[in-house]
């Protein structure tokens, strides 16, 4: 069984986004703008918040890509100009295809604002091919209890299959291009080899604990492992580990990006700003 080797291990940097919430970000950073087709990987928190201290991302636009939010702890509310709304609790996922353009907000729920608590989750941006960048916006939401779960034969590894599939365990989320999104949890002493299609760019982000991937040394939390070559992704842990495994088929197209818009040319970016300012992306609570 061929094993993917490691191309690079990148520590996440700390920064602040939205109205001021803490994120750990392995990319985009100087030297690594994206991992085709993934444009951004943000770990939101983890952080303990006093009542009234929670922050979010008020109304803002997107065009040309998808935003994927996976909440581990806390509560978030989503609203957008296409008329979608939803509330995320621990373990839930929302997959929003901005397409031609949408204005949305992601804010802590009213209850969480009152009580405070621990906030922890992820947001990932997935690029769209040029031919569907101007497609109709789409919103998918899946509750934690509905996410398919794969378990290894020895019982030491379990995987939440958010996108893609492992053997006969298929995700419920529909993606425009081939995407793998797994949340892998391994108990102490666990070893596992995960099949991933050879056509995908693959990476792993360590959430907690540590693991050895391929022939690497121990990789600790808040580090991103980017794999090369083809084959399976192997992991082993002495004390236990939780990590995201992401894979996507590279689009190999020009990327023009500025703030909340990701297109293929600068002219398309200028047009996106004009469309937003002119109200053609709609407004929350109004017509799309």
From the helix content, strand content and strand pairing, which structural class follows?
Answer: mainly beta
| Average pLDDT, all residues | 94
- Alpha-carbon Rg, integer: 19 Å
The CATH level-2 architecture is identified as: Sandwich
Q: Which band does the percent of strand residues land in?
A: over 45%
Short description:
The chain is mainly β and 288 residues long.
Describe this structure in words.
- It is a single chain.
- The chain has 288 residues and is mostly beta strands.
- The protein has a single domain (6-248), classed as Sandwich (Jelly Rolls).
- It has helices at 110-115, 266-277, and strands at residues 6-11, 13-17, 21-27, 38-49, 57-62, 65-73, 76-80, 85-88, 93-97, 102-108, 117-127, 138-142, 149-151, 157-163, 165-166, 169-170, 179-186, 191-194, 201-213, 219-220, 223-227, 233-236, 241-248, 256-258, 261-263.
- Strands 1, 13, 14, 17, 18, 19, 20, 21, 22 and 23 form a 10-stranded antiparallel sheet that branches. Strands 2-3-4-11-6-9-12 form a 7-stranded antiparallel sheet, with no helix packed on it.
- The protein is globular, with a radius of gyration of 19 Å.
- The mean pLDDT is 94.
């Amino acid at each position: 069984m061929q094993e993917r080797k490691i191309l690079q291990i990148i520590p996440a940097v700390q920064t602040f986004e939205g109205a001021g919430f803490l994120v750990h970000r392995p990319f985009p950073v100087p030297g690594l703008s994206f991992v085709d087709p993934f444009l951004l990987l943000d770990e939101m928190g983890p952080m303990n918040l006093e009542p009234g201290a929670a922050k979010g991302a008020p109304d803002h636009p997107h065009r040309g890509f998808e935003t994927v939010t996976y909440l581990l702890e806390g509560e978030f509310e989503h609203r957008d100009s296409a008329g979608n709304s939803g509330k995320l609790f621990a373990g839930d996922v929302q997959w929003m295809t901005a397409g031609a353009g949408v204005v949305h907000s992601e804010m802590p729920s009213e209850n969480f604002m009152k009580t405070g608590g621990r906030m922890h989750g992820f947001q990932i941006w997935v690029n769209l091919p040029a031919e569907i960048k101007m497609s109709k916006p789409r919103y998918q939401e899946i509750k934690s209890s509905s996410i398919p779960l794969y378990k290894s034969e020895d019982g030491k590894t379990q995987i939440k299959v958010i996108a893609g599939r492992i053997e006969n365990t298929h995700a419920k989320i529909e993606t425009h291009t081939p995407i793998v999104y797994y949340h892998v949890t391994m108990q102490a002493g666990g070893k596992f080899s995960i099949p991933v299609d050879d056509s995908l760019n693959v990476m792993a982000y360590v959430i907690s604990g540590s693991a050895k991937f391929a022939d690497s040394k121990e990789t600790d939390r808040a580090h991103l492992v980017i794999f090369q070559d083809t084959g399976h992704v192997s992991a082993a842990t002495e004390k236990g580990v939780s990590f995201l495994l992401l894979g996507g088929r590279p689009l190999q197209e020009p990327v023009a990006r500025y703030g909340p818009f990701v297109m293929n040319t600068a002219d398309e970016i200028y047009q996106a700003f004009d469309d937003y300012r002119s109200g053609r992306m709609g407004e929350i609570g109004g017509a799309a």
